[in-house]
C-alpha cells in the first residue's frame, strides 16, 4: 500500500518535473504581480517576494531540485560505491589509502568543507554538484565497502578469482549485484539529504544561482514567514518531505521484497 | 476445560503425550502461499522416541516446530489439531504456548553454534528458561546446569558454563544444547537434525549424550534427520516424509528390515556402502604432484606440514580427515589462493607458480574446483546461463549460438534439462545447485577437478546421486579428481587413492584397498569405526570399543612435535608418541603411514 | 585485553595521521580562499596601504608553509597559538565555545539516544504494524525538513505561541545548570528531531535483522517473552551497528550544528569556525578543525571499542 | 533669532543643556510670553520623558568572533554600537544631520578652513577615573595615522599635523581647506581613548568616556555594560544596564523580539516587517538616512566605458518596483547619485530618472546592443540578489540582456567588489556631500568603485570643499550630482531606510538617521517609558 503511494508520488513528481513548462501557468522567472499576493484564482498559491507565481516556481523547482538531487546522488553513488568495492575487493594498501582519504574527508565538518570549496571555486552548478558529490560519496564509500566485504568472502567470488577474472568483472558481476539492496536503501536517504544540504548551503548563502527556483532555497527564502504563522514556506518544505517519504517507502518496499522472501525456507 | 486437561493428563499419563491430526501447513514463496505439510497425523506416547525422516523440503522441521505450536515467519498452520497433553496448541493463546515452550516442550537445533546467543555465557543461557518460567531461582538453575554437565561427562563441568559459546568446540556445544533442553525437565524434546553438521567422530559423542538423556530420564522425543542410520540408533518408531506427505510409518526394526515403500528403500540404499572397482589404468601419467608443501595463514602455525601427494590422470585421490585437519587448506594451496611457505607443486611436470596472480590463464583453466556449500558458491544474482557460460567465454572464447549450445550440452551432462538455463540459484534445490557447480567446473574443460566436501551439505539420496554423476563423468570424460571429504563412506565409494590427513600431516596414504584394510593406522581405524551403520545397536557397540572411548570427544590440535594424534590414540606409547615424530613406514608399495608402531603390531592391536 | 590495546594504539596512530592530513588540507584550503584576514576584517574599508600594514602586523607576509610549520610546532608542543583577529589565546577562546557545544550536544544526545533506542525497539517489536508505520513516517518527515525550518517551527509553537521556552538561547557561563537546560531546550529538541530518525531506523533494522537468526528462534522456542527476547538477546548483538550510527550522530551533534547555533544564537564552536573561515583566521580555523576531527575520530574509536567490548568473540578469544 | 532658538533647541535635544538651562537661555534671548510657554512645553515633551533605570537588551545584526575592541578594526554595526556605548568622539551627528559637540565643546575654522581648533570639554572622566585632556585626543587620532591598518587613515590624510595648545585645546593643520572637517574628525573609528605612557592608546582596553562601562564581553556573542555613573552628559544613558547580543540570523532576531528575549532589534527582515509590526507590544520604526544601495560599473572596463551603455542601464531599471519588492517600501528611489534627500545639498530639482525601456533601448542601440553580467550577493546588501533578478527582468523588456551571477557572500568585498565589472554595493552613506564624493567619486579615490574620472567634477569637489558660502556651495554640489547622474558609472536605484523593531516599553525622542538605531546611539539616547 505504502509502496503504491510512494510510486504514485514519485510518478507525479516526475511528470511535473519533466513537463514543467507545459504545466506551470506562468514562467519560472516571470515577475507578474505584487509581492506576497494571497492565494487567488489568478495565482493559486499566491506570489513570492518578487511577485512571481508561487505555483509556477514550485513546479519549476521540482525540475531543478529533483534534477540536481538526482544527479548528485547518482554521481555520489557511482564514485562512492565504485571506490568502496575496489577497496573491499583489493584490500591491502589500496583499501588502506582509500579508507584513510575517506576518513580525512569525513572528519572535516561537511558544511565547512563545502564552504571552503565553494568559496574557492565559486558556486556555479558544476562545482555545487562536484562538492556535494564528494561529500556524499564518502558516506556511500563506507557503506559500499562494508557490505562488499561481506560479499568478497563468498565462495563465488573466490571461484571468479580462481578462474582468473579481472577486478572489473569481480566488481561488476560478482559484488555489485549482491550489494544493491543496502545501497538502494542508502540511496533513498542520501537523496533527501542532498535537498537538505542544498538548503543548508543556501542558508549560508551558497545555494543555487538565482533566479532558478529550487525547493531548498525556496524554503530558505521564505522560512522566516513560518514564525508569523504563514504557511508559504511549508509548501516547498512539504514538497521535499513528501518526496522523501515517498522515495523511502519505495526503497523499504524494494528491500522488503528482496530480503523478505529469503526468510521463508 | 482446564480441569478436563488435567484429568486427561492423569488418565493418559502412560498413553499419548502428543497427537497431531490432519496437520496442514502453508509456506510463503514467490508463487504465494503453498502447502508444505499436507495432512500429517502422528501420535507420540510418553517415553517414546519418534524419528522423522526425509530429505530437505519434506517438511520435517516444520512438523517438529508445529509440535511446539510454533510456525516460522512465512509459515502458517492452516488446519489440523495439535494436542499436547490435552492442550490444543492451534487454538491456544500465544501466552499459553509460551508457557509450554522451553518448559514442557523443548527444542534442540541443528547448529548449536548458531543457536546459542554469542553475547551470553552458556550457563546463563541454560538458566534463562527455568528462571523465566519461574521454575527455580537463578542459583538453583545454575547448579542444575552444572550437575547436568557433570552427568554428561562434559570436560570441566563446574566452569564450562562460564565460557562463551565460541570458546567451546562444536560437539561440546551441541551437547550443552541438549543439556539446555533439559533445563526445565520437559516432557518432550524436539531434536532438529542435531548431528548433521558434525564430523563422524563428534556425531557419536552427541548421539551418546542424547541417548543418555532420553532413555535415562524417560523423556519423549521427536528426532528429525535425513540420515536413517543415525535415527535407527535412537528411535522406536520412524515416520518417512516426502514433500510434506507421510510415506511410511512403522517401528524402526520393521523399516530397516522390510521397508514397504520404494522411497524408503532408496533412503536405506543411500547409506549402504558399495565398494566400486575402478578402471585400472596402466602407466598412468602423474598429473599433479605436491612435493613436501608447508603452508599456513599469516604468521600463524603451519596448517600443513610437509605434505606430498601425487594424483594420476583419470584417478580419484581422496583426502580424508576431521575438520581442522587441513584438507581445505590443501585445496587452497593447489589453486594458488594460499601460496605455500615451502615446497612445490607440479602440474603435468610443469612447475605451478605459487600465487594465483602469477599463474597463466591456461594453468588456471586446468584446475577447477567444486565447493562444499553450493549456496555460497553460486552468485545468487546470476542465472545458470551466466554461471556456466562464463568459463566458456573466458577460457574458450565461445560466444553466441556456440556458447548456448555448449551450455545445454553441459546441462545434459549433469542431467538437467535445458529449461534450467534461465534459472537463478534460488530457484534450484541443493542437489541441482551442486550440479550447476559441477557444470561450471566442466565448462572450463579442466584436467583436474578439486571436489571440496561436495556432498557433505546434501541429503543422503542427493549426495549419492551427485557421487554417481561424478563417477559417470569421470568414466565418460576421463576426469581426474582430488576429492576432499570427512565422510569415509563417500570416500570408500569413489576413491582410488586415499590420503588420511590429521592436524596438517599425513597419517596414512595409499591405494584405497590398502588403507581401508588392516593393518590400520589408529586414526584411520577411528574414522572407519565412527561411520554409522544401518542397524540397531550399532551405537552401543561402537561406544563400548576401546578406540571410541579414547578417540571421540576430542578436538584436532596441531602440535609442534610428536604425533598430533597421540592424545586421542588408544595405542599411544606414553612419552615417545608425544615427543617424537612418528616414522614413515611403507608396508607395501605406494602405501605409507606415520606411526611408532609397526604394521604388524597394529594388526594385533585391532584384531 | 592486549588485543584491544593494540587496536586502540593502532587507531590512535592512524587518527594522528588523519589529523595531520586534515591540518594540511585546511591550512592550504583556507590559504587558497581569495583574500586574507586583513582584507576580510577591513572589508569594504580595505585599501592597499592599510591591508599591507595589517598583514605585516599579523605576520601574514610570511610564506604560508613557514606559518604552517610554526603552527605545527606550536601544536606539537601543546600551544594552540593566538587568534590572528583578536590576539586572544585560542585555547581560551575555544574552551568556552567547546564546552557550550558539548553541553548542547550532550543534552540533545541525552534525549535522542534513549528515545531512538526506545522507538526503534518498539518498532522492531511491532514491526509492520500501524505504530511502526506512523513512527517511520514521522521520523522520515522530520529529517526531510531542513534543520533551520524545524527550528523555526519549534520556535513558533513553543516560544511564540505557548511561551514555554525562550526563542533564543544565549547561554553564558554563569548560568545555573537548570537555567542552561531550560534555555537550550529548543535547540536540543531541534537536534533531537534531526538525528533521532537515523538512529531509530538503524536500531529497528539491526534488531529485525537479528530476529531471523537461529538463536532468536531458539529463545522463542524457550518460551521467553518477546520484550525480553529483544532486550536480552537481540539488542546486545545489534549493539555494534547501533553504536556506529550513534557515534556518527554524536559526531554530528558536535560538529554539524552550525545552523542550529545560528538560529538560536547559541555560542558554539560551529559558529566560531564559520566566522573564522570567513575572516580567514587560520589558526582558529585550524584549531577548530583539529577539535572537530578529533571528536570524529575519538567517537569512531569509542564505537569500535564498544563493538569489541560487547562482542565476547573479540573480548574473550578462545 | 530663529536660528538661535533652533540652536538651543538642538542643544536641549542632544542633551548638552538641561531643561532649566534651556529656560534660562530663552530668557537671555529675551523670549517670553506665549512663545516661551510653547517652547517650554515642547522642551518638557522632548526631555522630561527621559527616565532612568532598567536593563536594555538589544539583538544586533552582525557581530563575529573575530571582532576586536580596537577602533581601527570596527567593521560592522555590532561593533560600532559597542563603540558608541563605550566611547565618545569629538562631535556627534544629531537628528538634524548636523554636527553637534561631544567631547569637543566647540570648534573654529581658520585660514580658509585649513586650520581647525577644537576646544575640549573639561572634567570628562574615563571609566577608570582619568580625566580627558588633549594628549588623549592626539593619541587617539594618531592611532589612525601613519603606519596603521585603520580604514580612517585615508580620511586623515588631509591632516598635516596635530598639536596641542594647552591641556584642553587641539589644533589640526590641514593640507587643504575643508569646511566639513568636524564631521571627518568625528568619524566613528576615531573613538577618543586614553593615552597611556608613551603617548599611545591601548586599543583593546575597552575603556572610554562613554555612557556604559564594559563589564563582560564575548566577541560575536554578547556585550554587557553598566551605566557610567560619572557620565558627563547628565541627561543621557538612561539604562542601568546594557546587554547587546549578536544575532546574525534575521528570523532569529525577530523571534527574539517577539518572544521578549530582547527589547530592541536592528535590521528588521523587511519581508516580515509588516507582520512583526502587527504583534502586540512591538513597534517597528524606521529612519531615513544616507544609506543607499548601488550597482557600480567599472567605467574602465568594456562595455561600461561607453556612457551609452551606462545610460541605457540607468533607464532600464524600474526603481519603484525595486523599492517596493526589495525594500518592501521602506525606502525611496535614488537618482543615480549618492546624495540622500535628507542631506542639505540634495539636488531636489534634478529630474528623477524613471523606468523608460524605450530610452534604454535607444541608448543600447547606440552602444550596439548590451549583454552583461551583474554580480550580486546578499552580502552586498540584503535583497541584492533579488534586486539584481528584478533588474534583469526590467532590462529584458528593453532588449538588454543581464545575466545575474550570485557570488558567495563570504569574501564578497575582497573578491567581487571593485573586481568584477558590474556588481552590487552598499553605502552607509557619509554625513556630508564632500565626504561621500571624495570617498567614492573623485578620480583616483581608493574607494572609487566605478573607476570613474571626470575633471570638471574633481575640480568642483576641491573648490566646494573649502567654500564657506552656503549658496555657492549648494550650486556646486547640485552640478556635481547632475554630472554623476548623467555621466557617472553608478546606478543608484534606492535609498534604504533603517528599519528596526522595539518593544513598546522603549521610548525615544526624534531620531538621527546617520546610522541604524538612532545613529547607533540608541543605548545613550533612549529610555524605558
Characterise the protein shown here:
The complex is a heterotetramer of chains A (265), B (607), C (318) and D (529). Chain A is built from 10 helices and no strands. Chain A has helices at residues 2-18, 20-23, 54-90, 92-107, 110-121, 125-152, 155-163, 167-203, 215-222, 234-260. The relative contact order of chain A is 0.14. By secondary structure, chain B is an alpha/beta fold. In chain B, strands 16-17-18-13-19-20-22-21 form an 8-stranded mixed beta sheet, sandwiched between helices. Chain B has a 6-stranded mixed beta sheet with strand order 6-7-8-3-9-10, with helices on both faces. Chain B is globular and about 75 Å long. Chain B has 3 domains: 2-269, Rossmann fold; 286-515, 3-Layer(aba) Sandwich (Rossmann fold); 522-605, no CATH class. Chain B contains 25 helices and 22 strands. Helix content of chain C is 78%, strand content 0%. In chain C, helix 11 (226-255) packs antiparallel against helix 14 (282-309). The radius of gyration of chain C is 24 Å and the shape is globular. The model of chain C has no long low-confidence stretch (mean pLDDT 83). Chain D is α+β, with helices and mostly antiparallel strands. Chain D has 18 helices and 23 strands. The interface between C and D is large, with 53 and 45 residues.
Give descriptors for this structure.
heterotetramer, A: 265 residues, mainly alpha, MetI-like fold, disordered C terminus, D: 529 residues, alpha+beta, seven-stranded mixed sheet, 23 strands
Write the layout of secondary structure elements.
The complex is a heterotetramer of chains A (265), B (607), C (318) and D (529).
Chain A: H1 2-18, H2 20-23, H3 54-90, H4 92-107, H5 110-121, H6 125-152, H7 155-163, H8 167-203, H9 215-222, H10 234-260
Helix pairs in contact in A: 1-3, 1-10, 3-4, 3-6, 3-8, 4-6, 5-6, 6-8, 8-9, 8-10, 9-10
Chain B: H1 2-11, E1 16-29, E2 32-45, E3 49-53, H2 60-66, E4 75-84, E5 87-88, H3 94-100, E6 105-108, H4 112-115, H5 122-132, H6 138-151, H7 170-181, E7 188-192, H8 200-216, E8 220-225, H9 228-231, E9 237-242, E10 245-251, H10 252-257, H11 262-270, E11 286-295, E12 304-312, E13 316-320, H12 327-335, E14 342-347, E15 350-351, H13 361-366, E16 367-370, H14 374-377, H15 384-395, H16 400-413, H17 430-443, E17 448-452, H18 460-477, E18 480-485, H19 488-494, E19 497-502, E20 505-511, H20 512-515, H21 522-530, H22 538-544, H23 546-551, H24 576-579, E21 584-588, E22 591-594, H25 599-605
Parallel strand pairs in B: 3-8, 3-9, 6-7, 7-8, 13-18, 13-19, 16-17, 17-18
Antiparallel strand pairs in B: 1-2, 1-4, 4-5, 9-10, 11-12, 11-14, 14-15, 19-20, 20-22, 21-22
Helix pairs in contact in B: 5-6, 5-7, 7-8, 11-18, 15-16, 15-17, 16-17, 17-18
Chain C: H1 2-32, H2 37-42, H3 48-58, H4 64-76, H5 90-125, H6 130-144, H7 147-161, H8 177-183, H9 185-211, H10 214-221, H11 226-255, H12 258-264, H13 269-278, H14 282-309, H15 312-315
Helix pairs in contact in C: 1-14, 5-6, 5-9, 5-11, 6-9, 7-9, 7-12, 9-11, 10-11, 11-14, 12-13, 13-14
Amino acid at each position: 500500500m505504502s509502496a503504491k503511494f510512494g510510486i504514485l508520488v514519485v510518478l507525479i513528481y516526475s511528470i511535473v518535473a519533466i513537463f514543467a513548462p507545459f504545466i506551470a501557468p506562468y514562467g519560472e522567472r516571470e515577475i507578474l504581480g505584487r509581492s506576497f499576493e494571497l492565494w487567488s484564482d489568478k495565482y493559486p498559491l499566491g506570489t513570492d517576494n518578487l511577485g512571481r507565481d508561487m505555483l509556477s516556481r514550485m513546479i519549476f523547482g521540482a525540475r531543478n531540485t529533483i534534477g540536481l538531487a538526482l544527479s548528485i546522488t547518482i554521481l555520489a553513488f557511482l564514485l562512492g560505491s565504485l571506490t568502496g568495492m575496489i577497496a573491499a575487493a583489493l584490500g591491502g594498501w589500496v583499501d588502506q589509502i582509500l579508507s584513510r582519504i575517506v576518513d580525512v574527508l569525513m572528519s572535516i565538518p561537511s558544511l565547512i568543507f563545502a564552504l571552503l570549496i565553494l568559496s574557492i571555486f565559486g558556486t556555479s552548478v558544476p562545482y555545487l554538484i562536484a562538492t556535494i558529490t564528494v561529500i556524499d560519496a564518502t558516506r556511500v564509500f563506507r557503506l559500499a565497502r562494508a557490505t562488499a566485504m561481506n560479499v568478497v568472502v563468498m565462495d563465488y567470488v573466490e571461484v571468479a578469482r580462481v578462474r582468473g577474472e579481472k577486478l572489473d568483472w569481480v566488481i561488476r558481476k560478482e559484488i555489485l549485484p549482491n550489494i544493491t539492496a543496502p545501497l538502494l536503501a542508502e540511496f533513498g536517504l542520501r537523496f533527501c539529504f542532498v535537498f537538505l544540504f542544498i538548503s543548508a548551503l543556501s542558508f549560508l548563502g551558497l545555494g543555487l544561482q538565482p533566479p532558478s527556483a529550487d525547493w531548498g532555497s525556496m524554503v530558505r527564502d521564505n522560512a522566516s514567514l513560518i514564525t508569523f504563522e504563514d504557511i508559504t514556506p511549508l509548501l516547498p518544505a512539504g514538497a521535499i518531505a513528501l518526496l522523501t517519504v515517498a522515495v523511502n517507502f519505495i526503497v523499504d518496499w524494494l528491500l522488503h521484497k528482496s530480503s523478505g522472501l529469503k526468510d521463508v525456507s | 476445560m482446564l480441569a478436563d486437561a488435567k484429568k486427561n493428563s492423569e488418565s493418559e499419563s502412560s498413553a499419548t503425550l502428543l497427537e497431531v491430526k490432519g496437520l496442514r501447513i502453508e509456506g510463503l514463496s514467490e508463487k504465494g502461499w503453498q502447502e508444505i505439510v499436507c495432512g500429517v497425523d502422528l501420535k507420540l506416547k510418553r517415553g517414546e522416541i519418534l524419528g522423522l525422516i526425509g530429505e530437505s523440503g519434506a517438511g520435517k522441521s516444520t512438523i517438529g516446530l508445529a509440535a511446539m505450536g510454533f510456525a516460522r515467519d512465512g509459515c502458517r498452520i492452516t488446519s489440523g489439531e495439535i494436542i499436547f497433553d490435552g492442550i490444543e496448541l492451534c487454538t491456544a493463546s500465544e501466552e499459553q504456548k509460551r508457557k509450554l515452550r522451553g518448559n514442557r516442550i523443548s527444542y534442540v537445533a541443528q547448529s548449536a553454534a548458531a543457536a546459542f546467543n554469542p553475547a551470553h555465557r552458556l550457563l546463563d543461557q541454560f538458566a534463562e528458561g527455568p528462571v523465566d518460567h519461574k521454575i527455580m531461582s537463578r542459583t538453583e538453575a545454575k547448579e542444575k546446569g552444572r550437575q547436568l554437565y557433570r552427568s554428561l561427562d562434559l570436560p570441566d563441568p563446574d566452569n564450562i558454563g562460564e565460557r562463551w559459546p565460541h570458546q567451546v568446540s562444536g560437539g561440546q556445544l551441541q551437547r550443552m544444547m541438549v543439556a539446555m533442553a533439559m533445563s526445565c525437565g520437559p516432557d518432550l524434546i524436539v531434536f532438529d537434525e542435531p548431528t548433521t553438521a558434525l564430523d563422524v567422530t563428534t556425531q557419536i559423542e552427541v548421539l551418546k549424550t542424547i541417548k543418555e538423556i532420553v532413555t535415562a530420564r524417560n523423556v519423549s522425543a521427536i528426532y528429525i534427520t535425513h540420515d536413517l542410520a543415525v535415527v535407527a540408533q535412537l528411535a522406536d518408531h520412524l515416520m518417512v516424509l516426502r514433500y510434506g506427505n507421510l510415506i511410511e510409518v512403522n517401528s524402526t526394526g520393521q523399516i530397516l528390515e522390510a521397508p514397504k515403500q520404494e522411497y524408503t528403500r532408496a533412503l536405506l540404499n543411500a547409506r549402504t556402502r558399495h565398494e566400486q572397482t575402478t578402471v585400472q589404468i596402466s602407466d598412468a601419467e602423474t598429473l599433479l604432484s605436491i612435493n613436501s608443501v608447508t603452508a599456513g595463514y599469516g604468521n600463524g602455525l603451519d596448517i600443513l606440514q610437509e605434505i606430498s601427494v601425487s594424483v594420476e590422470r583419470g584417478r580419484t585421490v581422496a583426502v580424508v580427515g576431521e575438520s581442522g585437519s587441513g584438507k581445505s587448506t590443501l585445496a587452497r594451496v593447489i589453486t594458488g589462493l594460499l601460496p605455500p611457505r615451502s615446497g612445490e607443486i607440479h602440474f603435468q611436470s610443469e612447475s605451478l607458480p605459487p600465487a594465483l596472480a602469477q599463474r597463466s590463464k591456461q594453468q588456471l583453466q586446468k584446475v577447477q574446483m567444486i565447493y562444499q556449500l553450493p549456496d555460497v558458491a553460486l552468485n545468487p544474482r546470476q542465472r545458470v546461463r551466466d554461471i556456466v557460460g562464463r568459463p566458456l567465454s573466458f577460457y574458450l572464447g565461445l560466444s553466441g549460438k556456440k556458447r548456448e549450445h555448449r551450455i545445454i550440452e553441459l546441462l545434459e551432462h549433469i542431467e538437467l534439462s535445458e529449461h534450467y538455463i534461465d534459472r537463478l540459484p534460488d530457484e534450484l534445490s541443493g542437489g541441482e545447485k551442486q550440479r550447476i557447480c559441477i557444470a561450471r567446473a566442466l565448462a572450463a574443460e579442466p584436467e583436474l577437478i578439486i571436489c571440496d566436501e561436495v556432498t557433505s551439505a546434501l541429503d543422503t539420496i542427493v549426495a549419492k546421486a551427485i557421487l554417481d554423476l561424478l563417477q559417470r563423468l569421470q568414466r565418460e570424460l576421463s576426469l581426474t579428481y582430488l576429492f576432499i571429504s570427512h565422510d569415509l563412506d563417500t570416500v570408500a565409494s569413489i576413491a582410488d587413492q586415499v590420503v588420511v590427513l590429521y592436524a596438517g600431516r599425513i597419517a596414512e596414504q595409499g591405494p584405497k584397498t590398502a588403507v581401508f584394510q588392516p593393518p590400520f593406522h589408529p586414526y584411520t581405524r577411528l574414522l572407519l569405526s565412527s561411520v554409522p551403520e544401518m542397524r540397531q545397536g550399532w551405537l552401543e557397540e561402537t561406544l563400548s570399543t576401546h578406540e571410541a572411548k579414547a578417540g571421540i570427544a576430542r578436538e584436532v590440535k596441531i602440535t609442534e612435535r610428536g604425533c598430533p594424534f597421540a592424545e586421542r590414540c588408544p595405542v599411544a606409547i606414553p612419552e615417545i608418541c608425544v615427543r617424537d615424530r612418528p616414522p614413515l613406514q611403507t608396508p607395501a608399495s605406494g602405501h605409507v603411514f606415520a606411526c611408532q608402531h609397526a604394521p604388524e603390531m597394529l594388526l594385533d592391536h585391532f584384531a | 585485553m592486549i588485543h584491544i590495546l593494540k587496536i586502540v594504539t593502532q587507531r590512535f596512530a592512524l587518527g594522528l595521521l588523519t589529523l595531520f592530513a586534515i591540518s594540511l588540507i585546511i591550512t592550504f584550503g583556507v590559504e587558497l580562499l581569495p583574500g586574507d584576514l586583513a582584507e576580510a576584517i577591513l572589508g569594504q574599508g580595505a585599501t592597499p596601504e592599510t591591508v599591507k600594514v595589517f598583514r605585516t602586523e599579523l605576520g601574514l607576509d610570511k610564506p604560508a608553509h613557514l606559518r604552517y610549520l610554526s603552527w605545527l610546532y606550536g601544536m606539537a608542543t601543546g600551544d594552540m597559538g593566538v587568534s590572528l583577529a583578536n590576539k586572544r589565546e585560542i585555547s581560551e577562546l575555544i574552551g568556552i565555545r567547546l564546552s557550550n557545544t558539548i553541553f548542547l550536544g550532550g543534552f540533545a544526545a541525552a534525549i535522542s539516544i534513549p528515545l531512538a533506542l526506545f522507538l526503534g525497539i518498539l518498532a522492531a517489536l511491532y514491526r509492520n504494524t500501524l505504530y511502526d508505520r506512523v513512527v517511520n513516517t514521522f521520523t522520515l518527515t522530520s529529517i526531510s525538513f531542513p534543520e533551520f525550518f524545524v527550528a523555526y517551527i519549534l520556535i513558533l509553537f513553543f516560544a511564540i505561541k505557548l511561551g514555554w521556552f525562550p526563542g533564543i538561547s544565549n547561554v553564558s557561563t554563569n548560568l545555573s545548570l537548570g537555567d542552561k537546560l531550560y534555555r537550550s531546550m529548543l535547540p536540543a529538541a531541534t537536534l533531537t528531531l534531526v538525528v533521532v530518525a537515523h538512529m531509530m531506523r538503524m536500531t529497528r533494522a539491526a534488531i529485525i535483522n537479528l530476529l531471523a537468526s537461529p538463536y532468536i528462534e531458539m529463545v522463542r522456542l524457550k518460551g521467553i517473552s518477546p520484550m525480553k527476547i529483544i532486550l536480552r538477546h537481540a539488542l546486545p548483538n545489534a549493539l555494534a551497528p547501533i553504536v556506529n550510527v550513534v557515534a556518527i550522530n554524536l559526531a554530528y551533534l558536535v560538529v554539524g550544528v552550525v545552523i542550529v547555533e545560528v538560529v538560536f544564537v547559541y555560542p558554539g564552536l560551529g559558529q566560531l569556525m564559520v566566522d573564522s573561515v570567513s575572516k580567514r583566521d587560520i589558526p582558529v580555523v585550524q584549531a577548530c578543525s583539529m577539535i572537530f576531527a578529533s571528536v570524529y575520530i575519538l567517537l569512531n574509536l569509542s564505537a569500535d571499542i564498544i563493538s569489541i567490548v560487547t562482542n565476547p568473540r573479540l573480548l574473550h578469544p578462545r | 533669532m530663529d536660528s538661535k532658538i533652533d540652536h538651543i533647541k538642538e542643544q536641549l535635544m542632544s542633551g548638552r543643556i538641561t531643561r532649566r538651562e534651556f529656560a534660562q537661555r530663552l530668557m537671555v534671548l529675551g523670549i517670553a510670553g506665549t512663545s516661551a510657554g510653547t517652547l517650554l512645553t515642547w522642551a518638557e515633551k522632548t526631555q522630561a520623558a527621559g527616565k532612568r533605570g532598567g536593563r536594555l537588551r538589544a539583538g544586533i545584526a552582525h557581530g563575529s568572533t573575530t571582532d576586536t575592541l580596537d577602533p581601527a578594526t570596527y567593521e560592522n554595526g555590532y561593533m560600532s554600537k559597542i563603540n558608541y556605548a563605550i566611547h565618545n568622539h569629538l562631535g556627534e551627528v544629531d537628528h538634524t544631520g548636523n554636527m553637534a559637540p561631544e567631547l569637543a565643546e566647540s570648534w573654529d575654522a581658520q585660514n580658509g578652513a585649513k586650520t581647525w581648533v577644537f576646544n575640549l570639554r573639561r572634567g570628562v572622566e574615563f571609566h577608570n577615573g582619568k580625566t580627558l585632556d588633549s594628549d588623549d585626543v592626539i593619541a587617539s587620532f594618531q592611532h589612525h595615522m601613519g603606519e596603521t591598518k585603520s580604514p580612517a587613515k585615508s580620511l586623515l590624510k588631509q591632516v598635516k599635523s596635530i598639536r596641542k595648545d594647552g591641556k584642553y585645546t587641539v589644533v589640526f593643520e590641514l593640507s587643504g581647506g575643508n569646511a566639513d572637517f568636524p564631521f571627518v574628525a568625528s568619524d566613528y573609528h576615531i573613538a577618543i581613548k586614553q593615552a597611556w605612557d608613551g603617548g599611545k592608546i591601548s586599543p583593546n582596553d575597552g575603556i572610554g568616556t562613554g555612557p556604559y562601562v564594559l563589564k563582560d564581553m564575548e566577541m560575536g556573542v554578547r556585550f554587557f555594560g553598566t551605566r557610567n555613573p560619572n557620565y558627563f552628559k547628565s541627561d543621557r544613558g538612561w539604562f542601568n544596564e546594557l546587554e547587546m547580543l549578536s544575532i546574525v540570523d534575521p528570523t532569529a532576531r525577530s523571534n527574539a523580539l517577539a518572544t521578549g528575549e530582547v527589547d530592541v532589534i536592528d535590521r528588521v527582515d523587511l519581508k516580515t516587517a509588516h507582520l512583526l509590526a502587527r504583534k502586540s507590544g512591538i513597534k517597528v520604526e524606521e529612519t531615513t538616512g544616507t544609506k543607499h544601495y548601488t550597482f557600480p560599473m567599472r567605467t574602465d572596463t568594456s562595455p561600461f566605458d561607453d556612457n551609452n551603455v551606462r545610460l541605457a542601464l540607468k533607464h532600464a531599471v524600474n526603481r519603484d518596483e525595486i523599492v517596493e519588492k526589495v525594500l518592501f517600501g521602506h525606502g525611496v528611489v535614488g537618482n543615480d547619485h549618492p546624495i540622500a534627500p535628507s542631506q542639505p545639498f540634495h539636488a531636489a530639482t534634478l529630474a528623477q530618472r524613471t523606468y523608460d525601456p524605450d530610452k534604454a533601448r535607444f541608448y543600447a542601440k547606440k552602444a550596439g546592443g548590451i549583454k552583461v553580467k551583474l554580480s550580486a550577493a546578499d552580502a552586498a546588501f540584503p535583497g541584492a540578489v533579488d534586486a539584481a533578478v528584478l533588474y534583469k527582468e526590467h532590462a529584458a523588456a528593453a532588449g538588454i540582456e543581464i545575466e545575474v551571477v550570485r557570488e558567495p557572500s563570504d569574501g564578497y568585498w575582497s573578491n567581487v567588489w571593485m573586481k568584477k565589472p558590474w556588481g552590487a554595493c552598499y553605502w552607509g552613506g557619509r554625513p556630508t556631500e564632500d565626504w561621500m564624493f571624495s570617498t567614492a567619486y573623485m578620480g583616483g579615490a581608493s574607494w572609487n568603485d566605478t573607476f570613474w574620472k571626470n575633471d570638471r567634477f574633481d575640480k568642483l569637489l576641491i573648490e566646494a570643499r573649502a567654500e564657506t558660502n552656503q549658496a555657492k556651495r549648494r550650486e556646486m554640489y547640485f552640478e556635481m550630482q547632475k554630472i554623476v547622474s548623467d555621466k557617472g558609472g553608478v546606478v543608484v536605484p534606492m535609498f534604504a531606510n533603517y528599519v528596526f523593531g522595539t518593544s513598546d516599553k522603549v521610548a525615544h525622542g526624534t531620531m538621527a538617521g546617520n546610522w541604524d538605531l538612532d545613529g547607533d546611539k540608541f543605548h545613550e539616547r533612549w529610555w524605558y517609558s
